[in-house]
Amino acid sequence: MEYLDTKYFSYADPDDPIHRKALIRSIEYVSGQPYLYNIYKEYQKNPDRWESFWDGCVDLLELNVKFDEEKIKNVPKEGPLMIVANHPFGVLDGLIICWLTSKIRSDFKVLTHSLLLRAHETKDYLLPIDFSEGKNAMKTNLETRKTARNILDNGGTIVIFPGGTVSTTKKIYNKTAFDPEWRNFTSRLIKRSKPTILPLHFTGQNSFLFQAASHLSETLRSSLLFHEVKRRINTEVPVIIGDPIEYKQIDENLSNTELSKYLRDITYKINPMWISKEVPLGKDFKEF
Hints:
40% of the residues lie in helices and 11% in strands. By secondary structure, it is of the alpha/beta class. A seven-stranded mixed sheet has the order 1-7-6-2-5-3-4, with helices on both faces. α2 crosses α3 and α6 runs parallel beside α7. The two termini are 29 Å apart.
């Protein structure tokens, strides 16, 4: 069994300045990282207890994922499929969306931050995407886009959080966190490959501590992501599964930005508690 060293079980990037890495790891250490690392090691002791890594995560974190199983039956079992979702939690919704997708398709890849590829159990399921700027980010995204296109062209499944960052309140005093505008990376991929689209909505958001920290420092924000996982251990996580949208149902005259907004609106409005006409925007970040 290949073990992930505890220093890599962190949101500190190896390329970060020393002071940033030290601060992130220090806060992680006192806010939940050791506890979660021990859960990860517990999985590695006997992974055959579960059908998949995702089953193990949901079980060991004692998550009660609430969703309509009938909705899963409506998802086509063949043909290109793209699953889009809001991103209120960070790590947790990533684990859950993989767990749910594994019940629908076995041939899926999740577009996510490259840091999450460190655990060897995830490498067969994840494609790195970098929403920051620069030549390296562009190179990574071009390679990932090419791979994602090939997967969809061959009838596979792509999963993505198009907001590119964890949902955050627009202002520090706002009560509700939302995704920022969804990136056009997703709409370009949809127009190119014409997949069926399945929207998922996660109900809930991270703590006020996380929201406040996000407005003060991106370093503090990253440091608290493990804390947000730990506080949701042994809790209920509602997930609303929308109806599949065939590509032919989408107005072909929509621009990339308009298509991104259309899908974002649908994803929030499938929540039966949603009553507003417009979906507010959350604060934008570039790190995920």
